[in-house]
Amino acid sequence: MSSKSFEPDSSRSLTEDEITYIRQILGQLRRLSDREGTEMLCYLIDMAYMEAGESQARLAEGRVDS
Fold this sequence. Notes:
This protein is mainly alpha-helical and 66 residues long. The radius of gyration is 14 Å and the shape is globular. It contains two helices and no strands. It has a domain of 29 residues.
């Protein structure tokens, strides 16, 4: 596996569609990791899934407040 440096692009935020896509992929990854019995990986994916959900909620609140 090659290691690539990750430099976040702080000049823009994720869109609601991008966060929705990330949550969908995380859900699929969670099901795969659950089948493999990888408890720690399941936990970490769950945390990322919840964080994405909170990001979606914040975006939706901002849209309603506007």
